[in-house]
Design goal:
By secondary structure, this protein is an alpha/beta fold. The protein has 2 domains: 45 residues, no CATH class; 257 residues, Alpha-Beta Barrel (TIM Barrel). The longest helix has 15 residues.
Length: 354
């Protein structure tokens, strides 16, 4: 455990956590909504500091990220807990796990060891993922600081559930803010996640963008939930008007998980979402969770040619040179990368680290 950084002491041994928009008032012996920040005798502690439940090396494309160093390898780490209760959560076994219960798969991993592990595995990136990383605030901050010093990029795979003060602290070290926006209404957020927090999520997107972080947005399209014209039109217009047309938008295929039993998203729905986004001015829209779909590739907005072709999480040719299309010279917006060809991988999927 480590004492939390962002909280206020109240009377009667109560504390107010100031990390996320809930601002939980927590009595002695209790935890906040996330389940991993506990009041112990009037002081707030982060129960999962340095504790890792899942760790793997992934292609960066699996995050998904398509405009940040294509072909890079990411050391992905995650822990218990979450401050959302998404009905379609794919990692509910760990995100809803009780942090006070011993688990044989939980390991202590000091920040220094994370950096050393990334170096041994030749990972250019550390990704904080699997559960909501903002509730890992102190550990994420310490690890990201060391990674930055070591020349390793930091990627935060998040649903945006964090207060602005905490986010701005992390953005001193976090290079990539890969944001999951569930939909485009407070009512949808209430039904799907249990909270009306869309406004804060959108504000955090603006904060990350203005801070200079690389930003890519993902929306998991769920039939009868967020696949309406109003939802898709509203969100894509918001991205263009507030962040610009070059922000990549990933529209991914939902599959039944946890409490949601709707059938998988029809590919036609994803194609329609893509059409709506392009019509509203977005230049880079990707289809996810549909192997072989041409919407996985990066196309030049200038000449229309394929610049990066992808098969699953593996990229083939990369025709982006010095940030521009190799064929017509068009500058590819919101792109960070290297002209060095990516290393060849033996497998496109993640593999565990012993």
């Amino acid at each position: 455990m480590k004492e939390a950084l962002l909280y206020e002491k109240l009377g009667d041994n109560r504390v107010r956590c100031q990390l996320c928009p809930y601002n939980c008032v927590i009595s002695a012996g209790q935890t906040g909504y996330c389940g991993v920040r506990k009041n112990i005798e009037g002081r707030l502690f982060a129960l999962t500091y340095g504790k890792v439940i899942s760790i793997a090396v992934d292609p960066i494309e699996k995050k998904p990220l398509h405009h940040f160093y294509p072909g890079a390898s990411a050391l992905s780490i995650g822990t218990f807990g979450c401050n959302l209760r998404c009905q379609h959560c794919q990692n509910w076994q760990i995100s809803h796990q009780d942090a006070t219960v011993e688990d044989e798969h939980l390991q202590d991993l000091p920040s220094e060891q994370v950096i050393a592990m990334a170096r041994r595995r030749d990972c250019e990136v550390i990704a904080y993922t699997y559960n909501e990383p903002s509730i890992w605030f102190e550990y994420l901050l310490d690890t990201a600081r060391l990674a930055k010093q070591a020349g390793i990029f930091n990627v935060m795979v998040t649903a945006g559930m964090i207060n602005p003060t905490a986010l701005k602290s992390l953005l001193n070290y976090v290079d990539v803010y890969r944001l999951d926006i569930k939909g485009f209404s407070e009512e949808l957020y209430q039904r799907l996640t249990g909270r009306k927090l869309l406004a804060q999520v959108l504000e955090n997107a603006r904060i990350a963008f203005k801070a200079g972080a690389h930003l890519e947005i993902v929306t998991n399209i769920i039939p009868n939930w967020n696949d309406s014209q109003a939802q898709l039109d509203g969100l894509s217009r918001w991205i263009v008007h507030n962040l610009g047309p070059d922000i990549p938008w990933h529209v991914t295929r939902y599959h039944p998980a946890y409490k949601l039993t709707e059938p998988a998203t029809p590919v036609e729905t994803l194609n329609r979402a893509r059409e709506i986004g392009f019509k509203n001015g977005l230049r880079y829209i990707y289809v996810g969770n549909v192997p072989g779909h041409p919407g996985q590739n990066t196309l030049c907005p200038g000449c229309g040619k394929t610049l990066i072709d992808r098969t699953g999480f593996v990229i083939g040719n990369n025709h982006i040179l010095k940030g521009c299309c190799e064929f017509c010279g068009h500058k590819i917006g919101h792109y960070c990368g290297s002209d060095t060809p990516p290393r060849q991988r033996s497998t496109p999927s993640a593999y565990p680290i012993n």
